[in-house]
Amino acid sequence: MACNNLSSGRLEVCKDSVGGLASVYFLNYTSASFSHSLDPGSYITGFPSGSLVYKYELKGNSSYTETVNSSRDNGTTFFNQELVLNVKKLTQEMTTQLKVMAWSRPQIVVHTMAGDALLIGEREGCDLTAGTIQTGGTLGDLYGYSITFTGQEQYNASFITGSTFADPFAGLAGNGKPIVSSTYQTI
């Protein structure tokens, strides 16, 4: 198989981006295929029919990092995906969901403050690999959860086509648009 060749360059971009995560959406693992504009690692144009996602709103110290791991000696390349979430306020409902997250391997949509949305764990799912349930030591400390999900994928996380800050699934239509659960825990 021939190696791919570079196909474009990149100009210096404007300084109009912002960092951070607005929310994440959890999807119970499915082996059904997501629709892509070209191939895996390109834009997601549709979710498996009837997909249900669960929204978690975020504010503060949550982040997503993707690391490329490539070895000339072994002839391999894969992408390590790491999502660190800080979820405020301890509740029995969230502690129960945390247990379910630890036992499963969800696929996760990361929705950024810039309005982009990426699907991580597309083929293999993500594992909850670290977490703490904490009360903090002083009045200003986190009273909640700090949890880390990791995924290892053959391809980079795919952007979701047409995502906006208001709606990460805005570019998807019909059966290809996931159903956002309207079940939220009360605070």
Describe this structure in words.
- It contains one helix and twelve strands.
- The chain has one helix at residues 92-103, and strands at residues 21-27, 35-36, 44-46, 52-57, 63-71, 76-88, 107-112, 117-120, 127-134, 144-153, 158-159, 179-180.
- The longest helix has 12 residues, at 92-103.
- The chain is globular and about 55 Å long.
- By secondary structure, the chain is mostly beta strands.
- The protein has one domain (21-171).
- The strands form three sheets. Strands 11-8-7-1-4-12 form a six-stranded mixed sheet, with no helix packed on it. Strands 5-6-10-9 form a four-stranded antiparallel sheet, with helices on one face.
Helix-strand blueprint:
Elements (H helix, E strand, L loop, with lengths): L20 E7 L7 E2 L7 E3 L5 E6 L5 E9 L4 E13 L3 H12 L3 E6 L4 E4 L6 E8 L9 E10 L4 E2 L19 E2 L7
Parallel strand pairs: 4-12
Antiparallel strand pairs: 1-4, 1-7, 2-3, 5-6, 6-10, 7-8, 8-11, 9-10
What's the multimeric state?
A: single chain
Helical segment count: 1
**Secondary structural class:** mainly beta
Could you tell me the radius of gyration in angstroms?
18 Å
The strand line-up of the biggest sheet is: 11-8-7-1-4-12
| Global mean pLDDT | 90
- Dominant shape: globular
Largest sheet: 6 strands, mixed
Please give the share of residues in helix. under 10%
Whole-number count of domains: 1
- The span between the termini is 55 Å
Give the helices and strands as they follow along the chain: EEEEEEHEEEEEE
Tell me the fraction of residues in β-strands, as a range. Answer: 35-45%
The count of β-strands is 12
Model regions low in confidence, pLDDT < 50 over at least 5 residues: none
